[in-house]
Structures are given as structure tokens and as C-alpha cells.
Specification:
With 445 residues, the protein is an alpha/beta fold. The chain folds into 2 domains: 198 residues, Periplasmic binding protein-like II (D-Maltodextrin-Binding Protein, domain 2, 3-Layer(aba) Sandwich); 200 residues, Periplasmic binding protein-like II (D-Maltodextrin-Binding Protein, domain 2). Helices cover 40% and strands 15% of the residues. It comes from Microbacterium barkeri. This is Carbohydrate-binding protein.
């Protein structure tokens, strides 16, 4: 792959480094020697399983396409261990050139200088700018007025459905897509019809002991009211009580033993749908390969808009620059090259179920032929991320706190208003504490 054109001022910036590199190349300029002279870029990520295999393929592709850099990946355990190690590396001067973070975690890391901002002008030179991303995904990368993360994807909460069961239930249109529903009542009616043609339940939804699963559905429904939860630093949480109670009440209604099992954990829900015993499945796009491997006839769609505003819970795997005290200018610029290269070659990332964030990929004719991925790609325009705060985001305790507050209500049919109040009390307690990365409160989102 040829290098993109670079302004002369940037060439001047790297003139000294280029001269040193040229000295090493005097001995010979064969392809082998060029490969040995490639800059090694350390890349940390938390992608395992099918995601990890797909990412390895993307890295092989960018490594093979050019001779200026080689990516050396390090895969670490998902969740808190990963984010702790990333923070320690940035603090201790051992940070990699680039890393993957969930977009929802950036608000806790940009303060205190744990991340370096991206140069939007340099990204634009490489064909990566606001025009090449869905607006909410691009905007999520900004914090404190600077761009701290560049999204690889969106991975939203979606609705999968068994096409045979739903066809038997009479809920598919002439194109084999689910009939539209635009209110809670219509959706409940549709799911009951599906239940009548299913061996077990109309809808698989696993939530027991899984705060993230409870939050994903709740926040989808809540933001469909045209609202977002607000978490002002040092203040009190803002959550519309009526909309929150209405959303949680609908979740209760789904768990009636006919539409969905009242006591299902996530793996049980996966198994129920994967074995063809239920007609629909509330899940993340990451289960796409699971269902393809199961061999069931299925399709997928965005979760229907039931409260007037198109919105769906999502997060994004995003590229960040962990802080380096004295970054090597050549490696830093090649890191920009790497991110641009992998975004432009991210079509195969859709194979993992995720929606590539780079619009030239999802707007291509080839992507339109990708089923079922193309059927929920519009979710990228309507993503609802966790409300920004230092303690929210994927792999944090925030979603677990929500689950601890509402699980008994879903199990026993208790008072949704009391559960929402308990959740807000937990959140307000966290809001009263300083961000460990910015204890002086000097950084503002």
C-alpha cells in the first residue's frame, strides 16, 4: 500500500528520524530488509473468541499491505483487569502505541492525562473525519473538546428472530421481515403471537445476575422516550421518573412466562433460541456467529421503536492513544496510518456481527448484500451510549448497580418506582466521589 500524501511541514518534522532510517537502509533495500526495518507498533486489545480471530485477520491484512510498520498485538482479559493494566501502563510510561477501549470508558480515562488526544487534521489527511462516521459515533469520541477515541464499530442491542417460527405466527411481511410495531401494546401482541408458534417462549431474554443485560434493554426503552440520563459531576443524577418506570414496567410485562421466561440467565436464553425453541431473542450483535453456527433459520433487526424516538443501547470498540511522555514521532504518525488502514479494511469486522463505524464500508454495495448485518446497520445512526461519567461504561460497576437495584422487581413483580429510586441513590453516591484519575475535578466533559 502506498503511503498517503503528507504535507511538507510534516516531512520536515520527521526529517531527522528519516535520516537515521536511511542510514540503516544503505546496506540493502531488498523487500526482506525493508520488512526488518519496519517500525514495530505495540497494540493492546481485549478481543477474544470470534472477535479475536477476526481482529487477527484484520491485523494480518494491514501488516501484509505495506512495509513501513508491523503491528505487535497483546491480548488481555476483558473487563476491569484490562482497564486497570491500561491505566497503569499509561501512568508508568510503558504504554503501547495504540489500544482498544470501549467508547463508554473514555470519560474515565481522558482526565489526568491517561490518554493522548488524536490530531483530527492528521486523521483527515488519511481520509478519516466527521464525514466518514455516523454522527453519534463520531461525536462520542470527543471529551473535553478534543478527540480521544476513534471508533472501529458499533455493537448495539438488537432483536434476532427465527424466520420459520415467525412465519408460522404470521408476523412477517412479504420480504420476510418482522411486521413493524410502534407501541408497547403492539409489541406485546406480536410477541404473544410468536409464543403461540414456539415450543417454549415467544422471546428469549436472559437477565439473572447480569446487570448489563438488564441495563441494555432498559436504556434502549428509556432513550426511546427522547431522553437521556444525565450524570453531572458532583451533582445529582437526572432521570425522568415516569419514563423510567414505564420502561421497567414493560420489561416486567415481557417476563410473564408466555412471552419470555420469568427466570432466565443469559446462557439459558442463548441456548433456548439457538435450539429453535423460541421465536425471538434480545441480545447483542456479538451472538451472530453463535446463531450461524447453530444452523437455525434466523434474521435480525433493530429493536422496534416503541416510544417515539429511534434509539438503541450500544457501545463501540474504539482506538485510543494511551499516554506516552515522549512519543516517537515516526511511530506516532505510523499509528495514525494503522488506524486509517484498518478502518478502510474493516469489512470483515462485520463478520463478527459488529457494525463497522467507517461509513464507506457500510454504504458499499457489498455490505448491502450482507445478511443479516445489513438489516440492522441503521442502528449505528441511533446509538445510545451509557451516560458519560468516570464510573460508567462497559466492564464497569455501573451496569451491575442497575441490575442489583431492579432484578428483584423483574423476578417478583415488585414496585418499579422503588427500584428506580434505589438505583438513583447508588448513582448519586458515586457522583459525590471524585474521579480517581482527576481528583481535583480539573477536567470537564
Amino acid at each position: 500500500m502506498a503511503s498517503p500524501p503528507v504535507h511538507i511541514t510534516r516531512r520536515q518534522l520527521f526529517a531527522g528520524a528519516a535520516a537515521l532510517a536511511g542510514t540503516a537502509l544503505i546496506a540493502g533495500c531488498t523487500p526482506a530488509s525493508a520488512a526488518r526495518g519496519a517500525q514495530q507498533l505495540q497494540f493492546w486489545h481485549l478481543l477474544s473468541g470470534g472477535d479475536g480471530v477476526t481482529m487477527s485477520g484484520l491485523l494480518d491484512g494491514v501488516n501484509a499491505a505495506q512495509e513501513e510498520y508491523r503491528i505487535r498485538p497483546t491480548v488481555l482479559a476483558w473487563g476491569s483487569p484490562y482497564y486497570t493494566k491500561l491505566a497503569m501502563a499509561a501512568t508508568g510510561g510503558r504504554a503501547p502505541e495504540v489500544a482498544v477501549m470501549h467508547a463508554t470508558r473514555v470519560a474515565g480515562y481522558a482526565p489526568g492525562g491517561l490518554l493522548d488526544p488524536w490530531d483530527v487534521d492528521r486523521l483527515a489527511e488519511l481520509g478519516v473525519d466527521e464525514s466518514t462516521f455516523p454522527a453519534p459515533i463520531w461525536e462520542k469520541g470527543f471529551a473535553g473538546g478534543e478527540l480521544y477515541s476513534v471508533a472501529l464499530d458499533a455493537h448495539p442491542f438488537i432483536l434476532m428472530f427465527n424466520t420459520d417460527i415467525c412465519d408460522a405466527a404470521g408476523v412477517l411481511d412479504s420480504d420476510g421481515r418482522l411486521l413493524p410495531t410502534s407501541s408497547p401494546e403492539e409489541f406485546l401482541e406480536l410477541t404473544r403471537a410468536v409464543a403461540g408458534s414456539s415450543e417454549s417462549h415467544g422471546l428469549s431474554y436472559g437477565y439473572l445476575g447480569d446487570g448489563a443485560q438488564m441495563w441494555r434493554l432498559f436504556y434502549t426503552l428509556y432513550t426511546q422516550h427522547g431522553l437521556a440520563m444525565e450524570l453531572p459531576e458532583g451533582g445529582k443524577s437526572v432521570l425522568d421518573q415516569d419514563a423510567a418506570v414505564e420502561s421497567l414496567t414493560l420489561m416486567q410485562s415481557l417476563l410473564d412466562g408466555e412471552i419470555a421466561a420469568p427466570q432466565n440467565d443469559y446462557q439459558s436464553a442463548v441456548a433456548e433460541f439457538a435450539t429453535g425453541r423460541s421465536g425471538m431473542f434480545l441480545t447483542g450483535v456479538w451472538e451472530l456467529r453463535t446463531m450461524q453456527n447453530a444452523g437455525i433459520p434466523f434474521d435480525a433487526t433493530t429493536i422496534p421503536t416503541l416510544y417515539g424516538t429511534d434509539s438503541v443501547y450500544a457501545d463501540s470498540h474504539s482506538f485510543v492513544l494511551p499516554h506516552q511522555t515522549s512519543p516517537d514521532p515516526v511511530k506516532r504518525d505510523l499509528t495514525y496510518r494503522f488506524v486509517a488502514d484498518i478502518l478502510k479494511g474493516s469489512f470483515d469486522w462485520a463478520g463478527a456481527g459488529h457494525i463497522p463505524a467507517y461509513l464507506p464500508i457500510t454504504e458499499s454495495p457489498d455490505y448491502a448484500d450482507l445478511v443479516p448485518q445489513a438489516h440492522y446497520a441503521n442502528a449505528a445512526e441511533n446509538v445510545a451510549y451509557d451516560p458519560p461519567a468516570w464510573f460508567t461504561g462497559s466492564g464497569s460497576n455501573f451496569q451491575g448497580d442497575f441490575g442489583a437495584s431492579v432484578q428483584d422487581v423483574l423476578l417478583s413483580g415488585g414496585d418499579p418506582a422503588a427500584a428506580i429510586a434505589a438505583f438513583q441513590a447508588r448513582v448519586d453516591s458515586m457522583l459525590s466521589k471524585p474521579n480517581p484519575a482527576d481528583p481535583e475535578g480539573t477536567w470537564q466533559s
